[in-house]
Amino acid sequence: MSAIRRDIHAHPEVGYNVHRTAELVASKLEEWGLSVVRGVGKTGVVGTLKRGDSSRAIGLRADMDALPMQESNEFEHRSTHAGAMHACGHDGHTTMLLGAARYLAKSGDFDGTVHFFFQPAEEEGAGAQAMIEDGLFERFPVEAVFGVHNWPGIPEGHFAVKPGPIMASTSLFKITITGAGCHGAMPHLGQDPVFAAAQIVSLLQSILTRNKNPVDSAALSVTQIHGGEAQNVVPTVAWLGGTVRTFSDETLDLIESRMRAIVSATAFGLDCKSEVEFSRNYPPTINDPDQTALAVDVMREVVGEEGVNASVQPTMAAEDFSFMLRAKPGCYAFIGNGGGDHRDAGHGGGPCLLHNASYDFNDELLPIGSTYFVRLAERFLKRG
């Protein structure tokens, strides 16, 4: 498994362009006797393994895509593709699921069907949604679906999970303010969009402090503000952008509605025009309580009681496995990647964090994650 993982790491592919990775996955699954369908959701791969007579089925998912960033590591399995890097551990996720497929194909003790979902474009492009729109759950029906993500900072090989929301939704916004340009020494002759944008930046935070229920978690971050080209000219246009994260659609609805009202009223009051573009990308990742309880039992069987945190604090990061959990009950969990001491000599000088140029997946997790998937499938599809 380590050799496969490092081969994938050395050949990262971004978005839906995971052709080499998808073919590697498909050929391995076929080699081990699974039925394979390529091209699901553009470049996704589904492997199917059936035992016995039961009509029950479970779905296990891994993501295959890398990030569009330059790797700073210099060890032997570093990226060979400039501007692409497995900086989030999808190489490890794919390999763990391959390991589970191999074991279940050779030695699996279950009655029913296991579908292995290998997904493209998790980082950008909503590959899970693309597979669903391509008939994933009609063509490969399952009762529940499960996935894992490595998590730096959690002790190596430990699991962390919780029922309910575990990762946030992600939305992006762009607010454009149009005024009338003029000389900076004569601001009374124009309408200043920069001034209006500055007021809006402050007022947007009132949504979180004065409109949202304090017990509902949310984040609203303005991350860009642009306007003007010369220091003595008031520009005609200024714009600002950022991201919103929530754990519920209701809170997101509130934030978008109040944002539009604040922007419109503020711009109008300062003699400017406004436009709000609000894009909802990934919904919150919400674990089904019953499937999470099953997953926790399996985790404890694999790593022991002390190795499982069943009430982890949710994160404001987002994950497109959320689309699958909207369609089917299931559970998404974290598996600890450790603190970075596992990295080979020659790693970059940065920390071993997700989306960091010095990151590398911890190969010690491979048998642990694979065992979790195996025992989860066998428990879910237990004979009798």
UniProtKB/TrEMBL annotation:
GO terms for biological process: diaminopimelate biosynthetic process. The keyword Manganese applies. The keyword Hydrolase applies. InterPro entries: Amidohydrolase (IPR017439), Bact_exopeptidase_dim_dom (IPR036264), Peptidase_M20 (IPR002933), Peptidase_M20_dimer (IPR011650). Mn(2+) binds at residues 88, 90, 123, 149, 355. Its cofactor is Mn(2+). The Mn(2+) ion enhances activity. GO terms for molecular function: metal ion binding; N-acetyldiaminopimelate deacetylase activity. It holds the Pfam family M20_dimer. Residues 173-266 form the Peptidase M20 dimerisation domain. Keywords: Hydrolase, Manganese, Metal-binding. This is Amidohydrolase.
